Amino acid sequence: MKQKNPAVKTFLSAAIVLIVMLFLTGLLTYLIPNGDFNAETMTFTIREEQGIPILTWIGAPILVLFSESGALVIAIILFLLIIGGSIHLLKETGLIEGIILAIVKKFKDNELVLLCMLVFVFMALGAFIGVFEEVVPLVPLIIILARRMGWDELTGLGVSVLATGLGFAAAVTNPFTIGVAQGLADVPIFSGALLRLLVFISVYAILVAFLFSRTKKHRIDCVENELTSKQDVSKKAYGFFIVLMLIMFMLVGATPFVEALRDYTLPLIGVIFLVAGIGVGLISNGKPAWVAKQFVIGAKDMSPAIILILLATGIKHVMIEGHILDTILYQISQNISHTSPLIAVFIVFIIVMMMNFFIGSGSAKAFILMPILVPIMDLLGIGRQLGILAFQFGDGFSNVLYPTNAVLLISLGLVQVSYGKWIKFILPLQGILMLLSIFWLTVAFTIGYGL
Known about the structure:
This protein has a two-stranded antiparallel sheet with strand order 1-2. The longest helix has 28 residues, at 419-446. A hairpin with a 4-residue loop joins strand 1 and strand 2. It contains 19 helices and 2 strands. It is an all-alpha fold. Residues 223-230 have low confidence and may be disordered.
């Protein structure tokens, strides 16, 4: 019997999960009262109409394109097409293989050093700069490097997208979570960084140990004659690519400090990779028809990821159209204000983690939740800094867990790893991170963090 294509299996497993979640969210609009919650006056009003038509559930992945967030979804889709085409071009020219070959030769006897370096770089991108979506173009490159080192795909995802996601959670100066939340809570921007730096170090140590242990237990064969580039790539092509990558990293590094860049980072990265792919293709091959053909092949390979993105954003669309988010927020405010301070901190952590399933953006959740949490923190005598820490943990660690997270879906699709396989890989680490989060929240509460 002919076995099913691994890529098809990966796509179907993720799509089935998302379709089930989409219909369950639609059912919730009938089970949870639809209402409007005013965070300033802490008042809640039930809406007359309850639930949304089933056609809205089914059509949500398309309807979301015409909603307020439609422009962002379309931008992400275009970004994926450009990245897919450009990366495929760079691979076909042999440039990526050449770069990976040089790294492997340098670190083939020091894989722990390479692992530590990669994890630190990607975690730092998330923790200090707030990078997450922007790592997607780098994932295929890291996967190739991982395979050449004898690591499996999950380890490759671990040192790239997983490390970035955990860095985002163990943020020290992340402007999109820490910066926004502290601004809304009227707390000095990036204050309390020492404790967060200790959190970063502890998460870094745990992730390195987790991944290094995997490299010893799950190795793949790496044939020596595979470590050759497909073509003889000219120094001019390498130089052109390196210059563009330096420009990209400078752009990413400047984003937290130049507000005007924040809304354009992803499009600019897409343009840089487009120029890199086409430029290297023309320098190496010189035939526009070949370059165009390879770009289209790579872009077409991204189509399954686009379908998954539409399904994931459709879930959020159904939740918003059903007006159940306000009801949930109102119940949260009522429950937290009538509990003990430490338990309240844990509840905030769990609630943010649950909301992250539907609303992936850390900044968006901060604007929704902080106006509600700040007065409750003050009422219970909890430092606002501690409430922000609970928000940070809840927002970040689950980014690499939920099937509604666009970055995770894209990354799994690029590597053809099923969501089920990813969950089996990530759950033990998520359990450790849950306990670590509770530990640091308890320590912060005990020492009066932020008071």
